[in-house]
Fold:
Amino acid sequence: MAMAETQVLGEFEQLVLLGVLHCGAEAYGVPICGELEIRARRRVSLGAVYKTLDRLEQKHLVRSALGPATAARGGRRKRIYHVTELGLKVLRSSLGAVARMWDGLETVLGVP
Amino acid sequence: MTRPRIPRAILDRFIEPRLRDAVIGDLDELFAVEHADGALRARTRYWVRAAGVLVRLGVHLPARHKLLEQPPNGDGMITTFWTDIRHGARLFVAQPGYAVAAALTLALAIGANTLIFTMANVLVLKPLPFDNPDRLAWIFGAGREETSWRGPVSLPEYAAFRDRVPAIPRLSARQRKTFTISDGGDAERVLAHVVIGDLQGLWGLQAARGRRLESSDEQSGAPLAVVLSHRYWRTKFGARDNAVGRSVRINGEFHTIVGVLSPAIERGNFAEIDIWLPYRGDPALASRTDRSWLAVGRLAEGATLETAHAQVVVVAESLAKAHPDTSLGRTARVGSTRDAMGSPDMWIGFALLITVVALLMLLACANIMNLLIARLITRRPELAVRTALGATHGRVVRQIVVESLVIGLVGGALGVALARGGLAAIHAVTYEPFFQQLSIDWRVVAFAAMLAFVAPLVFAMAPAMRILRSDVRTALNEASTRSMGSRGAGRAQSALVVAQVALAVPLLVVAGLIVQSMQAITRVDVGYSVAGLLSTHLEIPAWKVTTDDGVDRMRESIVQRVTAIPGARGVTLATNLPALHQPLVVDFTIGSARRDSQTDRPTADLVVVSSSFFEVMQLPIVAGRAFTAADAASPAPVAIVSQEIARRFFDDSNRVIGSQVSLEPGNQGARVPATIIGVASDVHVPGLQGAPRRQFYLLDADESIRSFYLVVRAERPQALASDLRAAISEVAPDVPAYQLRTVAEAFDDEYSTNRLISGLFAAFAILAVLLATVGLYAVMSHAVSQRRQEIAMRIALGASSRDVAASVMGRSLRLAACGLTLGLIGAFALAASVRSALYGIGPSDPATYVAVAALTAVAALMASWIPTRRAMAIDPVLGLR
Structure:
């Protein structure tokens, strides 16, 4: 088994990346927070999310671009995030590792 | 729906630009949604989220503080200058303690200096708009016993000087006099300058409309002309152009308005003048004893004030010889424009004020210098590192200087604001036109700016150079900032503190003397009850009421009508109120001896009063009796004298009553001597040293006066003012009530300048004490923290708290004592030079000096209180680390 040379993702980083994927074309601060709150049932702060996104971007796991502005935003533009190829690769690797660790523990954890 | 502004502004400033729009936009989006559910909740969450974002993403400062940056080659002076400025400005955020303290100290000193400069501005830099004021010669007359040094002359005297002084070929004169202007129904009293000899032309005054007065207006046959002051034209004629050419009735005669004067002349007392009138007639024929004219002329080409003075004295003496009955012993002198603008006392007082604020400025600079030294000592290792890494000494010094300039800028701006506040207070407190006209113009701001620029250079240069000259290596080798290596700086600080105390002490002594002088002046008991009196000046018009009988009747009817006012407890009248107004000065002889023009006759003040005077004024009669209605009815003239006359001129006070006395106000010719029927208590004039005034009181029934003060006693005099005005216009519509105010107010106004000056000195003294105490505190505090190791060692070796306290306090007291000694010497010298401005107290008054010394000791103790306690609380274990 080859040792993964890819980066290691923290738990929150994983969640954020997954949130970005869920949001699709409208992946910016507010919806990502929303996804996390609804799906992961986690109350997250906007600051934490942006901090993480920033870190992910520095690691080249996401990229961002300025999106449109709206009136509700006081005319300020959104910053839309996309997961990069590298990001997908790292995410797969990370989730794969977790899944493999899970293997055989279903009954113990009582998870469907 | 308004989004919370403050968090947005903060985020706008401190979030990095990349994420700024995204973050703030998101917050706004959420706010928009949540607002529907509850505005307050939405706002609160906005704040919370914003704080969270700030904490997580961290504050992003626009330009990193480049302490160790070596400027690259070709870096312009401008860029580094701006960096320094930004650095200096940021100082207020980073090290508010030092910056705020320094700026505040500077602001106080600059404020005080700016305030005094506004006075200098008016007195020296913005003088009255005379042509060539250096070539003006002012002639002042003086009698044997007059104390005024700017005495007026009479018209015949003026004519003599005009004709017989070759050094002054052109001579004019002016007189302040009130007139009544009646325009239709309303009569109004105005203040006028009556001029002779083309005064307006002599001074070179300009007309804003029409023309100024000319010599032709003074010819007897010429049409009656009047020139309005600019202010009067604005207020009474609405600044309308058609005012010129109009006709007004002045004292019953129709005058044509020929022009309006430019407002440039309206400074100081001149601001009160409403109109200017020409004198018509031959001055040589006018009254010799009506001395109310101020003469001024132009020096001839090549003549000096001294030559003019010599010639004027000769003429004055010849006049005295030629007219012994009116001018015996009189002389005259010539003064410069500066003499005319202010008395020597005033200039001394002014010079003193300037000295005081200059001392304050030095004190402030010394304080800030100390603060700077302390700060630089603390930063020594950092500065040493910077120098080691390549920053040149010059660069670092420059940075320190620029920092100080920023502090100077802030201090200067604050100082101007403080001066503004001070001016507002002065305007509210005084009555004198001079103070009302003080203002902050561009010259004043320029002065403040100059101080704000120079002061930082003074206090920053020396310490910066000294600290930086110290060896880099020794600075780096010092283990901590609390070492004894800063001994040199410590000595400098001590010297500065001694200097501060030495500067503050003379200031305090002089201020104490001046304040006590002012109090002595106002404390004088005038002699009658000033409170509860309302007064107004009335003049029965000569063109309306031509006979003496008519005048008496009108006076009567006015008094009767006023007596009927509800609330009026008593009504009287007098030609002047003793101690308040200029009295008429007369020569007198006791007994019915004939006039002997060779003897030196004594003078006294004359007041003509109605019979109720002493009762209404509550001026006690100490012998004999007051005037009664019977005296008014009888044709034999009676008089009452003051105690001073009784003392000086009669052996046995009983013989005073019944003696005859002849008074010579001069232009009445031989008079029937009056019989003395009573002696009144003395009247004292505040501000005049020496014996109380000699007063004669004559009855109005015997003298038929037209121009007098009407005085009403009442429980609450101010409440009667409008009733009084109405009552007078009811019986005498052509007699307007002039200067209607309470007598207490009149006295207050008279001495408001004194109070102001003493207030200024007191304020500056307090400021000096504050600055010196704070300075001492700062130095002691710094010294204690610098010497922690030493003190800790002493405690560890067995010194008790008391020993430590004694050592610290002792040092503080020694410094103060040094400063005190030097200061007392300076105080002596300074006080001696202002001896003449003091009243009722000597320049070496021991009580004052003792008080100042005690105050210094107390201040030194207070200043060292906290540092001493800190020293006593030093834990030897911690301190020795």
